[in-house]
């Protein structure tokens, strides 16, 4: 009897590291009616912030990268080589008008549209395609004015690129970043410390010591199909990817990491095929 190939796949989806701007928390909705004898209080005011510079470099921490607004000052891109963790690739005018209604700058609709814009345009800036970008640790983040600044007339948005090189740590980016992916992601490609689904698995940059690497992106559809269907979507594709890079076509390993509903909602609308490094 002809022996069958020995394969292994990830038993569960590993959590994706997604840098997404968190929504601003709202304050107490209760209102206090003024006493008839109280003096009227002037509403708070704020000066409109200037539009951020384009092609700027920053030395952000991951907490600063996750914030919806930023007050960090840019650094000189040339002088900051080796320590730049965030590079602005797009600055534009933010629209808070949705379906004929003026919405708050921190509303889900406004921030969702901003997220789509920044995600859509990063690959072209890097000089690559969406697949290569998804097989890397480089991810977009975005900033907008504070609510007070928006009320005072600030209407800008800012898209930055960052690289989550190890768990929740940002790594240095090449400067200049524009066109840096023309020949692939290189050291910023996506790798793992172990087989996806293993207890000690975490995503890291391939420039660090690694055991597995992501090699293909799995299309699981335009809308989330449910976890069972998402899990099934990449089985054949990832098995074939493992077979193609194996030295022995009858003895090889492969892994498939599929998106959960929560990851899909956060922006990871695809699966990943993994092979041993």
Q: What's the SSE blueprint?
A:
Elements: E1 57-58, H1 62-66, E2 86-93, E3 97-98, E4 101-102, H2 108-126, H3 130-134, E5 138-143, H4 147-151, E6 156-166, E7 169-170, E8 190-192, E9 203-205, E10 212-219, H5 227-233, H6 235-245, E11 255-257, H7 261-266, E12 270-276
Antiparallel strand pairs: 1-2, 2-6, 3-4, 5-6, 6-7, 8-9, 8-10, 10-12, 11-12
Keywords: Signal
Region (Disordered): 27-52
Domain Septum formation-related: 64-270
Describe the structure.
The relative contact order is 0.18. With 277 residues, this protein is of the alpha+beta class. The chain has 2 domains: 51-184, no CATH class; 189-277, no CATH class. It has helices at residues 62-66, 108-126, 130-134, 147-151, 227-233, 235-245, 261-266, and strands at residues 57-58, 86-93, 97-98, 101-102, 138-143, 156-166, 169-170, 190-192, 203-205, 212-219, 255-257, 270-276. The longest helix is centred in the middle third of the chain and has 19 residues, at 108-126. Residues 1-44 have low confidence and may be disordered. It has 7 helices and 12 strands. The strands form 3 sheets. Strands 1, 2, 5, 6 and 7 form a 5-stranded antiparallel sheet that branches. Strands 9-8-10-12-11 form a 5-stranded antiparallel sheet.
How would you describe this structure in keywords?
five-stranded antiparallel beta sheet; 277 residues; disordered N terminus; single chain; alpha+beta; Septum formation family protein
Q: How far from one another are the termini?
A: 31 Å
Order of helices and strands: EHEEEHHEHEEEEEHHEHE
Give the overall shape. globular
Helix residue percentage: 10-25%
Total DSSP helices = 7
Keywords: Signal
Domain Septum formation-related: 64-270
Signal peptide: 1-27
Biased composition (Low complexity): 33-51
């Amino acid at each position: 009897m002809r022996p069958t190939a020995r394969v292994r796949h990830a038993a569960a989806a590993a959590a994706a590291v997604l840098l997404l701007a968190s929504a601003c928390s709202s304050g107490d909705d209760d209102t206090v009616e003024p006493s008839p004898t109280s003096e009227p209080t002037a509403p708070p005011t704020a000066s409109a912030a200037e539009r951020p510079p384009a092609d700027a470099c920053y030395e952000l921490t991951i907490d600063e990268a996750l914030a919806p607004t930023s007050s960090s000052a840019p650094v000189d891109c040339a002088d900051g080589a080796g320590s730049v963790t965030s590079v602005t690739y797009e600055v534009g005018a933010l629209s808070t008008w949705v379906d004929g209604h003026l919405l708050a700058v921190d509303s889900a609709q406004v921030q969702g549209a901003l997220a789509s814009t920044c995600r859509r345009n990063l690959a072209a800036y890097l000089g690559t395609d969406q697949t290569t970008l998804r097989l890397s640790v480089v991810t977009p983040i975005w900033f907008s004015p504070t609510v007070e600044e928006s009320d005072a007339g600030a209407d800008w948005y800012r898209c930055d690129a960052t690289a989550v090189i190890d768990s929740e740590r940002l790594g240095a980016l090449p400067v200049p970043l524009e066109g840096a992916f023309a020949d692939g992601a290189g050291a910023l490609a996506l790798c793992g410390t172990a087989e996806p689904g293993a207890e000690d698995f975490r995503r890291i940059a391939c420039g660090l010591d690694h055991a597995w690497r992501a090699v293909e992106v799995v299309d699981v559809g335009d809308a989330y199909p449910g976890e069972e269907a998402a899990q099934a979507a990449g089985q054949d594709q990832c098995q074939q990817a493992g077979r193609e890079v194996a030295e022995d076509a009858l003895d090889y390993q492969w892994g498939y990491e599929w998106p959960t509903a929560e990851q899909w909602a956060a922006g990871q609308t695809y699966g990943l095929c993994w092979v041993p490094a």
